[in-house]
Design brief:
The protein has 15 helices and 14 strands. The chain is α/β, with parallel strands linked by helices. It folds into three domains: 146 residues, Rossmann fold; 186 residues, Alpha-Beta Complex (Argininosuccinate synthetase, chain A, domain 2), CATH 3.90.1260; 35 residues, no CATH class. Strand 1, helix 1 and strand 2 form a beta-alpha-beta unit. The longest helix has 19 residues.
Length: 418
Amino acid sequence: MPKKKVVLAYSGGLDTSVAIKWIAETYNMDVVTLTVDIGNVKNMKEIQARALKVGAIKAVVQEASDDFIKYFVWPALQANAMYQGIYPLATALGRPLIAKLLVDVARQEKASAVAHGCTGKGNDQVRFDVSVNAMAPDLQIIAPAREWHMSRDEEMDYAKKHNIPVPTTKRNPFSTDENLWGRSIESGVLEDPWTEPPAEVYQWTKSPSDTPDKPAYVEIEFAHGIPIALDGKHLESVAMVKQMHQLAGLHGVGRIDHIEDRLVGIKSREIYESPAATVFIQAHKALENMTLSKEQIRFKDRLANEYAEMVYNGLWFTSHHQDMAAYVQSTQRHVNGTVRMKLHKGTSSVVGRKSEESLYNYQLATYDKADTFDASASIGFIRIWGLPVQNQARTQLLKGRQSMPLALTEGDDAKSKK
């Protein structure tokens, strides 16, 4: 009887390299690895060869950068999704795509299980498990890193014992994840929130003290809320993100040091590098402020938080997401125009914006002789707008008083009734 198969999401790092050998020994299953390139794989052939050397019976590799940007990153950008208002969700956005491809390969290989290298205290285990269960509830899910109870040092000892080549060493204990939208770094000295991140943590961004003294300006053109051109040059999505990473990173833009609330209930110190995401989201919000109504902006700000929570919490393949996505897409009909950004010494700022569908009206906004605003209409408007305030003040707040107090507390109000 042939062995059962499991498809392992394989990054080539410590956890998943050890997992190949561990799964084969513990579950007596043949391991097929799947490596997905969403801008995070430097040498696909090398990783494929490493998987086979460690013991995989087959190593599948897939390039999915275009799909990642088109179907995951751009929708999140249109929503202005930033977890806790800070994290652009790079890792979180990559997981549902990898889970989808993991299920696809499991079907192709007639596997009975899938596996991932997530730990038992992180967010990614939730994202993978929930996504796989939404698409293929019949598949068994194996998560070695939350089952074997090995510390990172013990994992490295295991790798050495079994001649498993891994890039992580005890001298370089950082755990990193990266894709086209950003990098995340944790572990090691970063677990002390008081410790300043060492310089070697950062790879995509220069220290602001080492950046050019002269600022850089870049114009970003959007169509329906999606970047389509930089400085008038139309680019494919992947190339555009890479170019913005390079430019913004050169000026130190995109470093994030965050104490984050994980889904599993603990706080975690996370370091992120997201140069392109930082600039694109800032520019997109500026264009929305010009092309959306006050009510749309107010509601969409609330939705941005909900959308970010949905992504972070691993609920991509849900009806809730579909409903939110429909509203977001509707809001982007008129988010067309160009935003000029200034990059300098670790900061990015909006310094100009224009759109043929702008709701900004110069003749209504100006104070010069071109002003067409009817100021005389303000008197009646203010009277009607303030009528409920005036009525309540006369009826309740000023009753028995000569003047309104600076601070009205419940105690003060009670005293006034005696």
